[in-house]
Amino acid sequence: MKRKTALSFAGKLTTACLLVAAFGVLIQIISGHPYPKIPPVFFILLIPAALIYFAPWKWTPISAVLAGIFLTAGLFLSGASKRLIDLQNPGDSTGLWIQTLAVAGALLAGCMAIYQNYSNSKKTN
Prior knowledge:
mainly alpha, membrane
């Protein structure tokens, strides 16, 4: 299928940030944080990454922005943000920092990708 919009730098950056966030979750799992056998956070991170990278539509970065908002709100509303400064398990804290910063990056890059996709479509119309 031919892309209707080319994957912009912001789209590539959004995808990369989502993948780095998934790597942060993997670090947390390896460090012993109790996650389910199949963590839902992988779906929340990897489905938007796949949509942005493989789907031809200009709206796909919206999924990364929604995932970023959901995960950031969940971090603070669930009380998991305490693990950012709890150094009893440094691997878990490091993994959560990586995940949190990468999700913030995906949120910002996703907003940039949405702007680029829609401003480029106005220029071609």
